């Protein structure tokens, strides 16, 4: 380190000497002596000059640094491009397939419901053995399935209402319930109903139809009979008299379709409508 400092001082003095030489053209003897001394000092320091030159020229390899700077941006751009392109394409294709799926299932669901009421139309008494209640009206036997019997009441005072059909006998009160009583003989066989028949009728009971407020006036209760399916000639074709479910062969009496009869009475329709 001492040699390096000494050499630096010699170089500084040398440069100062060069500057002074340009300002003072006339050199004295003392100056020449100093010059000789400087030359001698420089001669002694010359072996170390290569080391100083090598250290100064060493920064030259720094020129390769721009090459490294170019390599860095190239790798960054190459990695960024594939990462952005892949996730964008995948989610777009998947929801497109899910949206089209429900359109195929909707028409299949709409078709079955209309077929359900057909099964509900089958009466419970149309399978196996069933009980039927027999009652008489003007010498005619009439029966209805016992499971569709709403009750039996003793006939009491009837209150007529204006604007009702001729077969509407009146309203009867039973425990705060209003019962619409039907003149059964006039409704079932209007073609045979006349003044003579009307005078001979003696209604004693009211046969309630299911859970409705409609009741059929009857003269007497016959009995309850267990019937098989083959005991009835069932109605096969729909048409007139939908209230007639069938004909009981052995007893030669009509079996009522209670639901159909309630619907007709509610509409104010007769048996032949």
TrEMBL record:
**Which Gene Ontology BP terms does the record give?**
chemotaxis; signal transduction
For this protein, the record's PROSITE patterns field holds: CHEW (PS50851)
Which residues are in the CheW-like domain? Answer: 129-267
SMART domains registered for this protein in UniProt: CheW
A Pfam family that this protein carries is CheW
SUPFAM superfamilies recorded for this chain? CheW-like
Tell me what this protein is called: Chemotaxis protein CheW
């Amino acid at each position: 380190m001492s040699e390096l400092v000494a050499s630096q001082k010699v170089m500084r003095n040398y440069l100062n000497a060069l500057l002074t030489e340009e300002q003072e053209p006339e050199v004295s003897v003392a100056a020449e002596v100093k010059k000789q001394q400087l030359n001698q000092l420089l001669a002694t320091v010359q072996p170390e000059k290569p080391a100083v030159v090598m250290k100064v020229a060493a920064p030259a390899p720094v020129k390769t640094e721009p090459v490294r700077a170019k390599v860095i941006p190239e790798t960054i751009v190459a990695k960024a491009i594939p990462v952005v392109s892949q996730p964008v394409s995948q989610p777009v294709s998947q929801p497109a397939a899910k949206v089209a799926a429900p359109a195929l299932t909707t028409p299949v669901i709409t078709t079955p419901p209309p077929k359900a009421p057909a099964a509900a139309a089958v009466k419970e008494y149309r399978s196996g053995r069933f009980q039927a209640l027999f009652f008489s009206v003007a010498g005619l036997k009439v029966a209805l399935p016992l499971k569709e019997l709403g009750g039996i009441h003793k006939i009491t005072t009837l209150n007529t209402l204006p604007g009702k059909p001729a077969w509407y006998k009146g309203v009867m009160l039973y425990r705060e319930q209003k019962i619409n009583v039907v003149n059964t003989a006039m409704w079932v066989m209007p073609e045979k109903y006349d003044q003579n028949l009307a005078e001979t009728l003696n209604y004693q009971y009211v046969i309630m139809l299911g859970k409705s407020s409609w009741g059929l006036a009857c003269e007497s209760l016959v009995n309850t009979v267990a019937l098989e399916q083959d005991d009835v000639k069932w109605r096969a074709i729909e048409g007139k008299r939908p209230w007639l479910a069938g004909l009981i062969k052995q007893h030669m009496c009509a079996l009522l379709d209670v639901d159909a009869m309630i619907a007709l009475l509610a509409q104010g329709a007769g048996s032949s409508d």
